[in-house]
Design brief:
The complex is a heterodimer.
Chain A lengths: L1 H23 L11 E3 L7 E5 H4 L17 E3 L11 E3 L2 E2 L3 E5 L2 E2 L18 E8 L13 E7 L8 E8 L3 E11 L4 E12 L15 E15 L4 E17 L5 H4 L7 E18 L7 E17 L2 E20 L1 E21 L2 E2 L2 E15 L4 E12 L3 E12 L5 E12 L3 H4 L9 E4 L12 E16 L2 E16 L1 E4 L6 E6 L4 E15 L2 E16 L2 E4 L6 E10 L8 E11 L23 E11 L4 E8 L34 E10 L1
Parallel strand pairs in A: 6-9, 24-28
Antiparallel strand pairs in A: 1-2, 2-8, 3-4, 4-5, 6-7, 8-9, 10-11, 10-36, 11-12, 12-13, 13-14, 14-15, 15-16, 16-17, 17-18, 18-19, 18-20, 20-21, 21-22, 22-23, 23-25, 25-26, 26-29, 27-28, 29-30, 30-31, 30-32, 32-33, 33-34, 34-35, 35-36
Chain B lengths: L1 H20 L5 E6 L5 H12 L4 E6 L5 E6 L6 H10 L11 H5 L11
Antiparallel strand pairs in B: 1-3, 2-3
Helix pairs in contact in B: 2-3
Classes of the chains: A mainly beta, B alpha+beta.
Chain lengths: 670, 113
C-alpha cells in the first residue's frame, strides 16, 4: 500500500511540474476534444468514447477498451482462456446488446470471446447506453447497449502502424492501409496479428496463467459516398482465425490431447463476416432517410478442455430495413422498419448434439419528441415472431428533462427477452470437473424457458464551475427485475453446475455516484463509486450473485501537456479500481486445501500509461497493468490432480498474473 | 415473409413518389434572424415551429442564419417571419414591435439594426 501511495504521489508531482512548465509558454487557444462525451441533450443515458479515450489503455481489443470508464466493469479473465469479461449494471455481457455499426456482433456462439475479436485500433468510437436501449436493433438487450463504430474509409489516413509488446510475452501488430479510389469510393484494409509465445506460470501451480495465442484478423471495407444524391454505402469483408492453448505447462497437444497425461485445452475459432449497408437521405428532405443493412457471418469454434469437448458452429444472417422521417416537423421524428434474423447452430457438448435453427422476424416503430430545448422523449415498440420465443411485444421508453442549466434528469424503462446459450456463455466452466445438469425439460431452449427482464433507470447529472474549472457530479440508479432467468447455480455443489428456470425472484440493483473535475488545465479527475445488490433465489435459497463485488470504487487521473508547435506532447494516465469482497461459489464440501472461503478479500488494481507524442506522425507509449502486483494466490482448485473431482479453474476474483508492463508505438502517414 | 418484403417496398415506394410529386412541400429557405444566445436559439426555433407547415427550423448562434424547410401549401415565408417577429426577433421583412422586444429575457436583448 505504501508503494502504491508513493507511486501516486510521484505521478502527481510529475504532473504538477509539467503543468508549471506549461503555463510559461504561450497559450494557444484550441478547443480540446473530450475523450469521454456525455451530452446534456441526448435522451438516453449514453456515453461516447472517442478514439482518444481508447488510447488511454493501449491494449488491445474491445474487451480491454473499457478500463478507463466507470460505466462498464471489466472482470478478470478466468484462469483458462485469458479473456476479459465485461459487466454493466452488474450483469454479464449476454444481457447487453453489443453491436458493430448497429449490426449485432457479439451474440450466440461468440458470446465468450467475441469482444476480443475486434482489435482496438480499428475502432473510431464507442457508444455506451445504460439501461433499456433502442428498439431499432432488436429485443435482446436488457441492461444496456454497446455500439462500436469502426474507422470509415473516407476519413481514414493513408497508413497506420501499431506495434506492441508486453512482459507477459504478448505481441501485436496492426497495420492499416487506405486508398481513396475516386471522389466517391474509398477503401481500407486492416490487418491485425497477435501472439503470445511464452508459457508463464507466476503462481507456480503448474498451469499457464495466460494462454498461448495466435490471432490473424483481416478486414477490408469499401465506402461509397455521393453527398449530392444522398447515397452512402459500405461493404465489409472480414476473416478471423484465433488459436489458444492453455492448461498444464507440460501439456503438448500433439501428444496429450484428450488424454489424462497432462491437463490441457485448445480453443480454435474461425470466423467470416460479410456485411453491407446502404443509406439514402432524401436530398430535398434531410430529415428523411432509408437504411438497409445485411450481414452474414459464420463462426466456428472447435475446442476441448481436458476431456470435455465443446464444438459450436453458428451461421447467421441478419437484415434490417429502417425508414426515418418526421411528423409535421422535426420536433416529431420517427423510425420504423423490419428485422430478420436467422441462426443455424451446430453445437456438440462431448457427444450430446444440441444443433438447432432459430429464426425471427420483427417490426419496430420508434417515436421521438424533442421540444428542441429542455425536454425529449423516445417511445419505442416492436413485435417479433421467433420460432422458440414465440410472438411478443418489446416496449421501451426514454425521457430527458433539463430542469435548469447544466442539469439533466433521465428516466428509462424497457423489456428484454432472450434465449440463453448456456454452454457458449458459461464455457469457462468446462475447465472444471463440474457436471453440467439441466433440471428443466419442458422449455424450447435446452429444455429451458426464455429469459425475460424489465429494466428501469433514473439518473441525474449536474455540471458546475468551481475555481473556474469545470466538473460534473451525478448519480444513476438502475433496477433489473427478472420474470424468468436461466439460473447458473454454483452454490449447490463444487462438483456440479445446475441450470434451471427461475422459480421466485431475481433482481439486480445498481447505483453509481460519479464526480468528475478538471483539477488543473488538461489535468482531469474521474471518480465513481458503484454499489451492486444482485440477488437470486437459488435452490439453496436467496443468495447474492457469485463473483460480484457489492462495492466498487473507480478513479482515473489523466494529464496532457500542451501540444507544442511541433506537435510534441506528453500524456499520462492512471486508473485505480478498488473491489470490495465478492461472494465465491460454494466449495465448502471439498477438503480445506481445495476450497475457498465464503468471501474473497477486497483489493485494488492500478494501471498506468505514459505516451510521448514526437510529432503528428509518430508516438510511443509505455504502461503497466496491475502495478501494485496484486495476485489471487490460489487460482486453480485441485491443480495437483486435474482429472480428480475437485478441479476448478473458473473461480477467479482477482488478477492471476500480477504486474505486467508493455510498450508500443504508433506511426501514421496522413 | 415475401408479403412483408412486398409491403415494405410498396410502403417505401409510396413515400418516395410522394416526395417527387410535390416539391413545394419541401421548400428550403435561409433567412437572417437577429439574436445572440442559446436562449434565443430555442425561442426562435419554437416560434418557427409554431407555424403549421414548418417542417424543420434550425438557427445558428454563430451565423444568425435560420434554415427552414417549409410546406408552402400550408404556410408562407411571411407567416414564419411574422411569428418570429411576434416572439421579439427582427427579420429583414418583418420587425418586431417595441413591446415584444422589451418582453425578451435579459440575455436575449440583442442589438437592433
Amino acid at each position: 500500500m505504501k508503494k502504491q501511495i508513493s507511486i501516486l504521489l510521484l505521478l502527481l508531482f510529475c504532473s504538477i511540474n509539467f503543468y508549471s512548465q506549461d503555463t510559461l509558454k504561450e497559450i494557444k487557444v484550441q478547443s480540446a476534444q473530450k475523450s469521454l462525451q456525455k451530452s446534456l441533450k441526448l435522451t438516453a443515458n449514453t456515453t461516447l468514447l472517442s478514439n482518444k479515450e481508447l488510447l488511454k489503455a493501449a491494449c488491445c481489443n474491445l474487451a480491454e477498451s473499457f478500463e478507463t470508464n466507470p460505466s462498464i466493469d471489466v472482470n478478470f479473465s478466468d484462469a483458462l482462456t485469458g479473456t476479459k469479461q465485461i459487466k454493466m449494471l452488474g450483469l454479464t455481457s449476454p444481457y447487453l446488446m453489443i453491436t458493430e455499426e448497429n449490426i449485432p456482433s457479439v451474440r450466440g456462439a461468440s458470446q465468450a470471446y467475441g469482444l476480443s475479436f475486434t482489435p482496438g485500433t480499428w475502432v473510431e468510437s464507442i457508444q455506451i447506453t445504460k439501461g433499456a436501449g433502442s428498439v431499432v436493433n432488436g429485443y435482446e438487450s436488457i441492461s444496456g447497449q454497446i455500439n462500436t463504430e469502426l474507422i470509415k474509409p473516407i476519413k481514414d489516413i493513408l497508413f497506420f502502424l501499431n506495434a506492441y509488446g508486453s512482459s507477459d510475452s504478448r505481441f501485436e501488430l496492426n497495420t492499416h492501409f487506405n486508398r481513396k479510389i475516386s471522389d466517391k469510393w474509398a477503401t481500407s484494409l486492416f490487418v491485425h496479428g497477435n501472439t503470445r509465445v511464452l508459457k508463464n506460470d507466476m503462481n507456480n501451480d503448474g498451469f499457464l496463467d495466460n494462454p498461448l495465442a495466435k490471432q490473424v484478423n483481416i478486414l477490408n471495407r469499401w465506402q461509397y459516398t455521393n453527398a449530392e444524391k444522398g447515397w452512402v454505402s459500405f461493404v465489409n469483408f472480414r476473416y478471423m482465425n484465433d488459436k489458444k492453448q492453455t492448461g498444464e505447462l507440460n501439456f503438448d497437444p500433439n501428444r496429450d490431447k484428450l488424454t489424462t497425461n497432462y491437463w490441457g485445452s485448445e480453443i480454435n475459432t474461425e470466423r467470416i463476416d460479410i456485411s453491407t449497408k446502404i443509406g439514402y437521405v432524401y436530398p430535398d428532405m434531410p430529415f428523411q432517410s432509408i437504411g438497409f443493412q445485411n450481414a452474414f457471418n459464420s463462426h466456428n469454434q472447435e475446442s476441448y478442455f481436458g476431456l470435455n469437448q465443446y464444438n459450436i458452429k453458428q451461421q447467421s444472417y441478419y437484415s434490417n430495413l429502417i425508414f426515418n422521417s418526421i411528423i409535421d416537423n422535426t420536433m416529431h421524428k420517427f423510425a420504423t422498419g423490419l428485422n430478420f434474423t436467422y441462426d443455424k447452430y451446430e453445437e456438440f457438448v462431448n457427444v450430446a448434439d444440441y444443433s438447432r435453427a432459430d429464426n425471427s422476424v420483427g417490426a419496430f416503430f420508434e417515436y421521438t419528441y424533442d421540444n428542441s430545448d429542455n425536454f425529449s422523449i423516445i417511445l419505442g415498440g416492436r413485435v417479433d415472431n421467433h420460432n422458440r420465443l414465440g410472438t411478443f411485444l418489446t416496449p421501451r421508453l426514454h425521457v430527458r428533462y433539463n430542469p435548469w442549466e447544466k442539469g439533466v434528469l433521465r428516466f428509462s424503462a424497457g423489456r428484454g427477452k432472450r434465449s440463453a446459450n448456456i454452454f457458449a456463455e458459461n464455457q469457462q466452466l468446462f475447465g472444471s470437473s463440474r457436471n453440467f445438469e439441466i433440471l428443466n425439460s419442458g422449455g424450447k431452449i435446452y429444455g429451458l424457458n426464455p429469459e425475460i427482464a424489465l429494466n428501469y433507470g433514473l439518473s441525474f447529472s449536474q455540471g458546475f464551475k468551481l475555481f473556474n474549472r469545470s466538473g460534473d457530479v451525478g448519480f444513476d440508479f438502475y433496477k433489473t427485475d427478472f420474470q424468468n432467468q436461466v439460473i447458473v447455480d454454483l452454490y449447490q455443489s463444487p462438483q456440479k453446475v445446475l441450470f434451471y428456470n427461475l422459480n421466485r425472484k431475481s433482481f439486480a440493483n445498481s447505483l453509481q455516484v460519479e464526480f468528475n473535475y478538471e483539477l488543473a488545465k488538461h489535468f482531469n479527475l474521474r471518480t465513481a463509486y458503484k454499489y451492486y445488490d444482485i440477488q437470486t433465489d437459488y435452490l439453496s435459497g436467496n443468495q447474492e450473485r457469485p463473483l460480484q463485488a457489492k462495492h466498487r470504487f473507480f478513479g482515473n487521473l489523466g494529464y496532457e501537456t500542451q501540444l507544442t508547435e511541433k506537435e510534441k506532447q506528453w500524456k499520462f494516465d492512471y486508473t485505480l479500481n478498488w473491489l470490495g469482497k465478492q461472494k465465491l461459489p460454494n466449495t465448502i464440501s471439498n477438503s480445506m486445501i481445495e476450497s475457498f472461503p465464503e468471501y474473497s478479500p477486497s483489493f485494488s488494481v492500478m494501471n498506468m500509461q505514459v505516451t510521448r507524442v514526437f510529432s503528428s506522425t509518430f508516438e510511443v507509449y509505455l504502461g503497466g497493468e496491475n502495478i501494485g502486483n496484486y495476485k489471487q494466490q490460489k487460482a486453480i482448485l485441485g491443480s495437483d490432480n486435474p482429472f480428480g473431482t475437485t478441479f476448478d479453474t473458473s473461480i477467479i476474483y482477482a488478477p492471476i498474473f500480477g504486474q505486467m508492463y508493455y510498450a508500443g508505438l504508433r506511426f501514421k502517414i496522413k | 415473409m415475401k408479403n412483408l418484403i412486398l409491403a415494405a417496398v410498396v410502403f417505401l415506394a409510396g413515400f418516395s413518389m410522394q416526395a417527387q410529386e410535390k416539391s413545394n412541400k419541401n421548400s428550403k429557405y435561409v433567412i437572417e434572424v437577429n439574436g445572440n444566445c442559446e436562449m434565443c436559439q430555442s425561442r426562435i426555433q419554437k416560434a418557427a415551429y409554431s407555424v403549421s407547415g414548418v417542417k424543420s427550423a434550425t438557427w445558428s448562434i454563430e451565423t444568425h442564419q435560420l434554415n427552414l424547410i417549409l410546406n408552402e401549401e400550408k404556410a408562407t415565408l411571411l407567416t414564419v417571419k411574422t411569428a418570429i417577429a411576434k416572439a421579439g426577433y427582427d427579420t429583414d421583412e418583418v420587425k418586431s414591435t417595441v413591446e415584444s422586444y422589451d418582453n425578451l429575457p435579459g440575455c436575449c436583448q440583442y442589438e437592433r439594426k
